[in-house]
Amino acid sequence: MTKAEYIKKQQDLLASIRKNLQEYNSEYNQNHFDKAVVISATIDKDVAEYNSIAQVLCFDECASAEDPMRAAILMLHYPVISVKDVMIGDEVKVAKRVIIGDPDDDEQKPKYKAIDLLKFQKYVKEHKGVKIGYEPDWNNKVERLNYLFALDCAVELNMGEKFIAEMSDCYAIKEASKNIDFGVKNPKAGTPISNTNLLKALKAVITAMIGPEYAAMAMTHDVRYLKKVSAKKSRKELTVACANHRFMRGYVAEVCYRIMTEGSYDVEYKKVDPKKK
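Above: the chain sequence. Below: its structure as tokens.
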């Protein structure tokens, strides 16, 4: 399909989704739940196809660039849609399913999905016959970096030598990735990896992705950012969940984006309501 045909298909899907949402909301609020379930399945199928086309359009645009990896990192994400149930009305609340990220609704904020660089690489290889990145093993290096960050997280939480050894053996990582040498040794219990050495490893990954000229601009605060976002509170008490490789690919892509755009990090926090001051 051509780009124009893809866009036309998206428009047709959006029109179908809107029509089916009207029918769904009518049937649901009349307690015709069996009919509503059938319509809901059709809506979900159309939303999935719409978003699949959105990914193809994004990948095609990036793949056509002189450097597909850099183009994908500069784009970072692409617009998608979803549906959500909300309650509307003042005195009497009525359930209504609506589109989130509707491109024709100026009052809505766009909804985005991050580009998965590994999926993008497979797409480019299939359609262009080439790999992306400055070095062909960039993804293996991301996995090795993620492995180091996960082990270092455990060490910083004062996990014992037995746990660190077991984690090192059982961590889900390809053998080719695990054996990559950044010149940075795995941490031992009680001895975390220094930020200097983690930066050394990060620079090797950035080089593999977008080139040494960008890797030279990586800073220690890039390491600190990755530490903050790659380890989050688990649902289990007193437990930290380390990022899987897909998420780490996205986090490193954000670091590359910061470097390429000369951007800076930000911190979100709850602010005092000025009306209550």
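The mean pLDDT is 95.
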